[in-house]
Amino acid sequence: MTVLSFDEQGVDVVYEGTEFRLEKALIEDAVQKSYPNVTDHEVLQMVEPEPALSGEPQRIAEIVN
């Protein structure tokens, strides 16, 4: 299971027992969107090769506020 924890500067990730951080600039470069407009599904797709996406995607701006 992958755990994503969002804040204004990036995302803390736990993937297969490994903890790491994706910085805001890295995420913006990867998806070519401003950080607040990136969705949780897009971040999950950066981390997992074949994620099981469920529910509606949420923008980071909605999650952080």
Can you describe this structure?
InterPro entries: DUF5800 (IPR043823). This is DUF5800 family protein. It holds the Pfam family DUF5800. The chain has 65 residues and is α+β, with helices and mostly antiparallel strands. The chain has one domain. The chain is 32% helix and 26% strand. The protein is built from three helices and three strands. Strands 1-2-3 form a three-stranded antiparallel β-sheet. Strand 1 and strand 2 form a beta hairpin.
Summarize the structure.
With 65 residues, the chain is α+β, with helices and mostly antiparallel strands. The protein is built from 3 helices and 3 strands; from the N terminus they run βββααα.
Which labels suit this protein?
alpha+beta, 65 residues, 3-stranded antiparallel sheet, 32% helix
Regions with little confidence, pLDDT below 50 for 5+ residues: none
Portion of residues within helices? 25-40%
Mean pLDDT: 96
Distance between the termini: 25 Å
Count of DSSP-assigned helices: 3
What is the tally of beta strands?
Answer: 3
Integer-rounded radius of gyration: 11 Å
Reading side by side through the largest sheet, how are the strands ordered? 1-2-3
Backbone shape: globular
Layout of SSEs?
Blueprint: E1 3-7, E2 10-15, E3 18-23, H1 24-31, H2 40-47, H3 60-64
Antiparallel strand pairs: 1-2, 2-3
